[in-house]
Amino acid sequence: MSINDEKTKFMLISGKRLEKKILEKGNMDIAVKVDDTQITEVNCQKLLGVTIDNRLNYEEHIDRLCRKLSKQLGLLKHISPYLKKQQRELYFNSVIKPTMMYGSVIWDNCNAECFQRVLKLQKRAARIILDAEKMAPSI
Questions:
Q1: What is d(CA 89, CA 78) in angstroms, rounded to the nearest whole number?
Q2: How far apart are CA 114 and CA 136, in angstroms?
Q3: Which helix (H) or strand (E) holds 17?
Q4: For the chain, what are the domain ranges?
Q5: Which helix (H) or strand (E) holds 62?
């Protein structure tokens, strides 16, 4: 089996300490070659639907997730006057929740700010399902 040069990329994953050491030593360009072909370095890459970045903080993944969830919630908000509560719950459980939960085992250790963004969208979904006011307090 041969490697597709255009699709093959590499990512250097490092923690804060290693990154600090690299910065102290100056500009360290890492060149990876396979069969005399230069492999492109990337800072983030989508793998099986989860965007992984070189610091493993999953901010890029959360950004994409929140954009996708916002679109799905916008659709639910738009059609909710025509649906009963049970139907809105069904839409949430079959469309929004799987999107929200996909890969959550991996990105669950993201920073608190990213986690709050997802939680805020989940609360928004609950308000839409329950037909509550936008500023209704949550539990």
A1: 15
A2: 22
A3: helix 16-24
A4: 5-42, 59-130
A5: helix 59-79
pLDDT in tens, 18-77: 777 766 666 667 788 888 888 888 888 898 998 888 888 889 999 999 999 999 999 999
Tokens of 127: 């308000």
> H/E element holding 47?
strand 44-47
Contact 27, 20 (CB under 8 A): no
What is the distance, to the nearest Å, from the Cα of residue 82 to the centroid of all Cα atoms in its chain? Answer: 31
User: Quick one: pLDDT at residue 54?
Assistant: 82
Amino acid letter, 18: L
Tell me the C-alpha to C-alpha distance, in Å, between residue 118 and each of 20, 41, 44.
Answer: 31, 29, 20
Question: Residue 43 is encoded by which pair of tokens?
Answer: 């800072």
Question: Considering the chain, what is the average pLDDT of its residues?
Answer: 86
